[in-house]
Amino acid sequence: MIEIKKSPTSKIDKTNFDNLVFGQVFTDHMMECDYKNGEWQKPVIKPYGPLSLDPSARVFHYGQAVFEGMKAYKDKDDKIWLFRPEENFNRINRSSERLAIPEFPKEYFFNALVELLKLEKDWIKKGFGNSLYLRPFVIATEPGVSASAAKEYKFMIICSPAQAYYSGEVRVKFSEKYSRAADGGVGYAKAAGNYGAQFYPTNLVKEEGFQQIIWTDANSHEYLEEAGTMNIFFRIGDKLITAPTNDRILDGVTRKSVIALAKENNIDIEIRRVSVQEVIEAAENNELMEIFGSGTATVINPVAGFGHKDKKFELPKLENSYASFFKDKLMKIQYNEAEDKFGWRYEV
Ligand code: COI
Predict the structure, then answer these.
(1) Rg (Cα) of the chain, in Å, rounded?
(2) Which listed residue, of 58, 71, 137, 264, carries a Cα 20 to 30 Å from 193's Cα?
(3) Given pLDDT bands bounded at 50, 70 and 90, which one contains residue 102?
(4) Atom of ligand 1 nearest to the CA of 23
(5) Which CATH number fits domain 3-164: 3.40.50.12640, 3.30.470.10, 3.40.50.20, 3.30.870.10?
(6) Quick check: 172 and 57 in contact, CB under 8 A?
(7) Cα 114 to middle of ligand 1, angstroms
(8) Ligand 1 atom index nearest CA of 69
(9) Keywords for this entry (predicted)?
(10) How far away, in angstroms, is 146 Cα from ligand 1 center?
């Protein structure tokens, strides 16, 4: 079903796996599948390399592009696993629908992943924290600058060996002004523009010593929605709170896995709106125990401190944090070191 053109050379021996910066090194192959004449053509796995696109391609002018983030893990017996890949498959098609991109066939998606991972298996290193980050994406390639949905697309998967996403502590600033999306917008989609739009506000807060912003709702900026690269959880006392998904917030796979693990482990979890005021009051009363982000790239990322307007708060450093509890639970499932009660693992 898939055509495979193997690369005559490999970069693997020149790659320093002990010092990987997230998303900088790519493996030897990539998957490419074109949409034209009203259908997806035969997918091809070929040597990783640059694309040649018409400068008028819609993706450059109207940002008609969506993507996914997934990881492949290697267990102690060299078996390779994906984590809930069906969720990513469904989500890329939900994102595509919102951006008027044609649905990608399921058998192409899974076949491509399996064949690509078989070819690139040596790029997946063992041990907690090591993985192969997979980036499926779709771009509108049809030439022409009329502002209408393209009739030609490229679905691709590229692979990058990964370790930690953030190299140091993460402090976040609650946004007073910026939002990921408004109701009716594209916030729930993994649309490229949702992420490009955080670079400017993130640069502003970096100047104040924060690494990320937390988007607040577009109507009032009183409610905390999502961080630039991850969903976000708050622990007040022993209660865990995260915002509900809606038009504006990404339905994160790690987010929903944390919710399921919390319920399974009798951790009190509330899925409801979280206000800036509630979190600041909890911090002032020493009841705010943790904030952590969740996402495929970041896994579970503890937040060391936060700011709002001119106030800055540091969070306690806990021995038994929920963040480390969930990270450990998730990784043991991902690396095939614990029972997979929920059926989340997918063997390649
Ligand atoms: C992921 O967690 O995989 C994402 O896609 C977030 C990305 C912006 C790094």
Answers:
(1) 21
(2) 71
(3) very high
(4) 9
(5) 3.30.470.10
(6) no
(7) 21
(8) 3
(9) Amino-acid biosynthesis, Aminotransferase, Branched-chain amino acid biosynthesis, Pyridoxal phosphate, Transferase
(10) 30
